[in-house]
Write a structure and sequence with these properties.
This protein is mainly beta. It is built from no helices and 6 strands. The relative contact order is 0.20.
């Protein structure tokens, strides 16, 4: 999947991440219900978010450019198998 730049709409608040509420992708806005996780890497911050539709997104925020991009997507109702297959 090639990196797609997205717009994250928010209101001003005490903390920028706390006020974000919508993800705009391909001229369509998805309201965000929950910020599930956040982790850091050199020069970027990643967020896993849950939309009101039930879809999940992993967003990357480039710290230097203040630019957002979509790095992963999972549609609502899709199950992810987290078991590790082990050969014996």
């Amino acid at each position: 999947m090639t990196e797609q730049f997205v717009r994250v709409e928010c209101y001003s608040g005490y903390k920028a991440e706390g006020g974000r509420y919508a993800l705009c992708l391909r001229r369509r806005a998805s309201r965000l219900r929950k910020w599930e996780d956040r982790w850091y890497s050199p020069g970027a911050t990643y967020f896993r978010v849950l939309a009101e539709s039930g879809d999940r997104y992993v967003l990357r925020r480039d710290d230097a450019q203040d630019a957002w991009s979509l790095t992963a997507y999972r549609a609502a109702g899709k199950r992810v198998d987290t078991k590790i297959n082990q050969s014996v």
